Structure to design on (93 residues):
């Protein structure tokens, strides 16, 4: 069974991914793991943040063969949804 078929899409997933990239970029810089350039693509940012969070054991890695960009985005959306305050607008049902 493909992981994509069992992953439930979050209501504001695209916005959560944008916020995860923003916060993840700050985390990456603060941690001293590098920083993004204006020319870096969103896909490159997603992969870098995902790999850093896995390396730091802040998220569980995806199964082998399931580590593609859409699944990484979903993992980042889940990660940031747990970091935001409960009353954050992106967490509204």
């Amino acid at each position: 069974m493909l992981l994509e078929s069992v992953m439930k899409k979050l209501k504001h997933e695209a916005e959560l991914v944008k916020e995860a990239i923003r916060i993840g970029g700050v985390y990456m810089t603060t941690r001293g793991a590098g920083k993004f350039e204006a020319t870096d693509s969103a896909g490159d940012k997603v992969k870098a943040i995902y790999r850093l969070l896995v390396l730091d054991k802040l998220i569980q890695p995806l199964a082998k063969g399931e580590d593609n960009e859409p699944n990484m985005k979903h993992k980042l959306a889940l990660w940031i949804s747990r970091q935001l305050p409960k009353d954050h607008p992106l967490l509204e049902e």
The first helix runs from residue 3 to 6. The chain has a mean pLDDT of 89. The two ends are 28 Å apart (CA to CA).
